[in-house]
Design brief:
This protein is 40% helix and 18% strand. The chain folds into 2 domains: 281 residues, Mur-like, catalytic domain (UDP-N-acetylmuramoyl-L-alanine:D-glutamate ligase, 3-Layer(aba) Sandwich); 127 residues, Alpha-Beta Complex (Protein-Tyrosine Phosphatase, Chain A), CATH 3.90.190. It is of the alpha/beta class. The protein is built from 15 helices and 17 strands. The mean pLDDT is 93. The strands form 3 sheets. The protein has an 8-stranded mixed beta sheet with strand order 4-3-2-5-1-6-7-8, sandwiched between helices. Strands 12-13-17-14-15-16 form a 6-stranded mixed beta sheet, with helices on both faces. A hairpin with a 2-residue loop joins β3 and β4.
Length: 421
């Protein structure tokens, strides 16, 4: 089996769809010898920020000398990005070899696993084979019934910011969504959580009490920004001073605070992580398409934000970092998202919109989106292809303006590729 054949196998129609429950993943892993039982996990769930927090934690663990696995989804450019060890994606040869080994196990099950369940099991096998000391494991959707939740007792559970997204699957209130995310909290294992509204925190606290788990809440009042520019940020948190983070936006300092609280728990559980390792880990954190500056003449930012909470962050960042520039929103969305609310938020920081169609069967056509955005009274242009949209947006921005691509992570990969990223 080649790498291309492996990816084709993973994307086969046989594994399509979303089916709640953990039984299929457990059955598949049992056929494979339960590789997840020989790994130590930091399990991360949340609506927004879970990828950034996961990237920070993986970078810190790697800086401390631990062989570190990182499991995330979706990917920007290559499927192999979804599972990494010490920052390196799985190679095509390893992907082919592991997929060939897992294929008979998957085909033998009467209740076939979904694609995400198949990939999760493959990742566990890869991390075990690589001899990982720790795996930072990001959930795909929700938590309670997410296939990553087959793991038994993580070193700790981490819950990031929670907002309204995937409401059809998870519930139509933040409290209901929080209850689903709280499903990753395991008995007698600590949970580190974002500083959330009290009603949401109460849901997580109730789960901790029921599980006999200690609850640690990041304290954002202890975050002290030192400097902030397009080159990155310097901040302090509690006793950790003058930490440099290349990721932009005040929200990333909150994510960093959550990562620092998690490091404290890891230290209590036998991980030797020095203050210098924390410093190096933050400084070397890479997490593309999160208000990522990829071009300077003119300024061009890529953000994979795809819900109203993300749009608020993007709008705040645009006004903060580019207060006097002409701001063009390159906007492409999936039809099942709350895109008009996203657009209303982005409208506060956009002088014009250029619409594109993300490369997804769920995408809203650029022409349809353009017609609907005219309600805001701003200039709106339908970009056609992504490359045409980029060129239109750049022309509108001019040499001193800024373009921000936002609305869907599916667009982020092709946009970054246009600039050679």
């Amino acid at each position: 089996m080649t790498a291309e054949e492996a990816i084709s196998f993973i994307h086969e129609r046989a594994w399509r769809g979303s089916k709640p429950g953990l039984a299929r993943t457990r059955a598949l892993l049992a056929e494979m010898g339960d590789p997840q039982k020989r790994l130590r996990f930091i399990h991360v769930a949340g609506t927004n920020g879970k990828g950034s927090v996961s990237a920070m934690l993986a970078s810190i663990l790697q800086s401390a000398g631990f062989r570190t696995g990182l499991y995330t989804s979706p990917y920007l450019t290559s499927f192999n990005e979804r599972m990494r060890v010490n920052g390196e994606p799985i190679s095509g040869g390893e992907l082919a070899e592991l997929t060939a080994a897992i294929a008979p196990c998957a085909r033998a099950l009467a209740d076939r696993p979904t694609e995400f369940e198949l990939v999760t099991a493959l990742a566990f096998s890869y991390f075990e084979r690589q001899g990982c000391d720790a795996v930072v494991l990001e959930t795909g959707l929700g938590g309670r019934l997410d296939s990553t939740n087959v793991i038994e007792a993580p070193v700790c559970s981490v819950i990031t910011n929670i907002g309204l997204d995937h409401t059809r699957e998870l519930g139509d209130t933040v409290e209901k969504i929080a209850a689903e995310k709280a499903g990753i909290i395991k008995r007698d294992r600590p949970a580190v959580i974002y500083d959330l509204p009290e009603a949401v925190t109460a849901v997580l606290a109730a789960r901790c009490r029921a599980a006999g788990s200690r609850l640690i809440r990041a304290d954002f009042s202890k975050v002290r920004p030192v400097s902030d520019s397009l080159e990155g940020q310097v901040f302090s948190y509690g006793g950790a001073a003058a930490l440099r983070l290349p990721l932009l936006g005040a929200h990333q300092l909150k994510n960093a605070a959550l990562a620092i609280e998690t490091v404290k728990v890891l230290r209590e559980n036998g991980f030797d992580i020095s203050s210098e390792a924390v410093r190096r880990g933050f400084a070397h954190t890479v997490w593309p398409a999160r208000f990522e500056l990829i071009s300077r003449k003119p300024w061009f930012v890529v953000d994979g934000g795809h819900n109203p909470q993300c749009a608020e962050t993007v709008a705040e960042n645009l006004l903060h970092y580019f207060p006097d520039q002409k701001r063009i929103s390159l906007f492409g969305v999936l039809a099942d998202k709350d895109y008009m609310r996203q657009a209303a938020i982005l409208d506060t920081a956009a002088d014009a919109f250029v619409t594109i169609t993300p490369p997804s069967p769920r995408a809203l056509p650029a022409d349809t989106l353009a017609r609907r955005l005219r309600v805001f009274g701003k200039p709106v242009f339908s970009g056609g292809s992504i490359s045409e949209g980029i060129e239109t947006a750049l022309s509108l921005a001019g040499e001193n303006g800024v373009v921000c691509s936002v609305g869907s992570l599916y667009s982020a990969g092709p946009v970054r590729a246009y600039f050679g990223k």
